[in-house]
Structure prediction request, 258 residues.
Amino acid sequence: MPAPSSTPNIARPVAHDLTDAEFAELDELLAATPEPLEPLDAVMLDGYLCGVLVQPVLLEPATWLAHVFDFDATPLSEYVDTAWQQRTTALILRRHAALNRALVDDGWFDPLVLEFDDEHPRTPVPEGEVDPLAGLSPVSQSLMPWAAGFQHACTCFPDLMEMPDDAVMAALARLYRHLPAETDEEREVVATLDREHPLATLDEAMEELVATVADLHDLTSEQRYKVETVKRDAPKVGRNDPCPCGSGKKYKQCHGVT
Prediction:
């Protein structure tokens, strides 16, 4: 995605349903969300959509879209530009469908992440403001916005985090290692992962990120697509009524004999 030299370059997926221009357009459309709403950007959106897709319950767009346009899911105004809303929503849904298809068909996808380099360095943090990436490795600095989007989905829809499954918790830890640690326990988890599973390059980290999401998708698929069997009482049939089996006999002379 094209970006000014003062901002990081967004490394787009090789295979995807949106073109480079459409990813850039989506980022601009989200940024144009009317104030005071606080929308996700394109990179956070990518992580958020993956967080939605690996939930142990199927979430319809009507349920999760509001959290894209505003962190607190404040509804868009009824006076919002209809063309802007329709175009933005269409691009979001196309990306959601592409990610879902990739996870289902291939167990793999190409994430949209930030990539900092000499040509596209990080934008300096204004003096007096807290640096949200402080303390993170260069690799985690690139993946933090994506991981924050994923975490946003899990916060909005806690079904995944509430699963009593150690494998799920371990997978979440592998994703959240790219977020700033806020407690001693979180710092210990990150230190353990860095020691036992170091990530030397961004490519290695992206590969692990994708594999982890694919693992979560597999771990939750049975529950996500589970169809509950609803037992219903059989219709009450009088002894002189026609038997429901279609024999033409009265119920008392057919299946009502017993």
The CA atoms of residues 174 and 208 lie 8 Å apart. Confidence is low (pLDDT under 50) at residues 1-8, 229-235. Strands lie at 9-11, 113-115. The radius of gyration is 25 Å.
